[in-house]
Amino acid sequence: MSRAAVSLDFRTGSRVLLVIMLLLIPYATLTPDPGTPAGSAPYMHLGGMAWVGLLACLSFEANRTRAWAVLFVFAYSSLMELFQHYLPYRHGTWDDVWLNGMGCLAGVGIFAAAKWIGGLRN
Predict the structure, then answer these.
(1) Burial grade of 83 (CB within 10 A; 0-12, 13-18, 19 or more)
(2) CA 42-100-87 angle, 5° bins
(3) Contact 100/81 with Cβ under 8 angstroms?
(4) What are phi and psi for residue 19, nearest 5 degrees?
(5) Phi-psi sector, 90: left (phi>0), alpha (psi -120 to 50), beta
(6) At what angle do helices 41-58 and 94-117 cross, to 10 degrees?
(7) Quick one: CA dihedral 91, 96, 100, 103, positive or negative?
(8) Cβ–Cβ < 8 Å for 44, 36
(9) Which residues lie below 8 Å from residue 91, measured CB to CB, with a gap of 6+?
(10) What does each of the 122 residues of the chain score in pLDDT, given as a tens digit?
């Protein structure tokens, strides 16, 4: 299998995972809270959005497209926080929006570090 075919398969897989994650975000954020352990919410925001931000970077080849994809992920997560604000059984806060943004940047940072180290070619 050629290098281009492997790269295409990798990007396709990343896109599929990205779409799945984006489809799961409303369920995870808008359904009644199952009772997260105290103090774990910031880590869930950072970790979850870092993963989605990393997938957004892996899904596209051009840096401009990657930037737009990460911006879309952040805007999408911010919209979910806005919806939470109006639900009686959830609460969306500016802290959560900020943590989502930091998580997206962490995902970009992980991608950039992996690319700089040489593990990623595109």
Answers:
(1) middle
(2) 80
(3) yes
(4) -65, -40
(5) beta
(6) 40
(7) negative
(8) yes
(9) 84, 85
(10) 555 555 568 899 999 999 999 999 999 888 887 777 777 888 989 999 999 999 999 999 999 999 999 999 999 999 999 999 898 888 888 999 999 999 999 999 999 999 888 866 65
Domain extents in the chain? 3-117
Residue 108 tokens read as 């970009």
Token digits for 19?
A: 């779409």
Structure tokens at 68: 């737009």
The whole-angstrom separation of Cα 86 and Cα 49 is: 22
Angle subtended at Cα 34 by Cα 47 and Cα 38, rounded to the nearest 5 degrees: 60
The predicted pLDDT at position 6 comes to: 54
Q: Which tokens sit at 35?
A: 């009772």
